[in-house]
Amino acid sequence: MQVLIVDDSQIMRKIITGVLKKLNVNEILEAVNGQEAVDMLVGKTDVGLVMMDWNMPTMTGIDAVRKIRANGSKVPIIMCTTEGEKDKVLEALKAGANDYLVKPFNPKDIQAKLEKFLTSVS
Amino acid sequence: MKVENINPFIESVMETFDSMLNCRVKVGKPAVTKDDEDADDIIGVIGLTGTARGIVAIRLPIKTAVTSIGRLVGVEFKEIDSSIIDGVGEMINIIAGNAKVKFEGQKISLSLPTVVRGNMYKLNNLTGAVFLTLPFSSELGDFDLLVSFKSSDEAVGKKEEAHAGAHR
User: Fold this and answer.
1) Rounded CA gap, A48 and A50, in Å?
2) Alpha carbon distance A99, B162 (integer Å)
3) Do A82 and B87 lie within an 8 Å CB cutoff?
4) Complete DSSP assignment for chain B
5) Rounded distance, CA B96 to CA B99, Å?
6) Which residues in chain B have their CB less than 8 angstroms from residue A103's CB?
7) Do B86 and A9 touch (CB under 8 A)?
8) Cα(B68)–Cα(B62) distance, integer angstroms
């Protein structure tokens, strides 16, 4: 099962990758903006989870979530962002995100979210 | 600058270092930043706009930046590279993002973070405002948070232009 990390920050991709590897998830894909993620997911069924940042160039995470859902994909998506206001959380869930993780988070926070979804899809 | 407008930034720094770096930090006595202050540091800057406006920056000596970002990623860095620069940008983004949520009733947006390295930069604050320097100490090294911030209730009746920049 593959996990797609979508974040324009190289450092955030590294942090999340590190936690995933500790959870024995070794098939990790990366995208640097929402458009790249949308394109990568077209016709792809072996991605089991998407970790999606909100603020990115070219296409934001929230727009990417809408596009991914419009394309018919039901892949679980966790928004992973500094946008922690309640209206933002609700907007993301309404757009089709399955869960929300607000930065700053610690590795245990990521692990808890990942385990929830990795268990549900395995 | 009101004291209650500084506390969210202090709390945010403490929460960010505690959550993401497993590191307790202590804040020292705030001071007004001098215009000619410079050092061989890495500084991450981010602008805040909306019902409150300002600039927040984290200024890390190179050694602190290397150890902090190294712990964040779980890698031992020997020198400054793109990961360190990217990490400092992400760090100020997280600190400012976490702080803005603490301002209830305010609609604040963040600019994209900018990272500057060297000793020839100069931060320009809001016209008529000052930067407060908040010194922090930790096991990863000392660093400063620089804040120039005005909430809407402070800005009433005043026309001021924000111009943030790091000039070489």
Assistant:
1) 7
2) 36
3) no
4) --GGGTHHHHHHHHHHHHHHH---EEE---EEPPTT---SEEEEEEEEEESSEEEEEEEEEHHHHHHHHHHHHT---SS--HHHHHHHHHHHHHHHHHHHHTSTT--EEEPPPEEEEES---B---TT--PEEEEEEETT--EEEEEEEE-HHHHTT--------B--
5) 5
6) 20, 93-94, 97-98
7) yes
8) 10
Distance in angstroms (rounded) separating the CA atoms of residues B43 and B145: 9
Contact B20/A at CB under 8 A: yes
What phi and psi, each to the nearest 5 degrees, are found at residue B45?
A: -120, 140
The answer to whether B117 touches B1, Cβ cutoff 8 Å, is: no
User: How far is residue A12 from each of residues A15, A99, A112, B103, measured CA to CA in Å?
Assistant: 5, 18, 17, 25
- Per residue of chain B (168 residues), give pLDDT as tens: 677 788 899 999 999 999 888 899 999 988 876 554 556 789 999 999 888 888 999 999 999 999 999 998 888 888 888 889 999 999 999 999 999 888 888 888 888 899 998 766 666 666 666 778 999 999 999 999 999 887 666 644 444 444 444 443
ipTM of the complex: 0.76
Q: What angle do CA A118, A36, A42 make, to 5 degrees?
A: 65
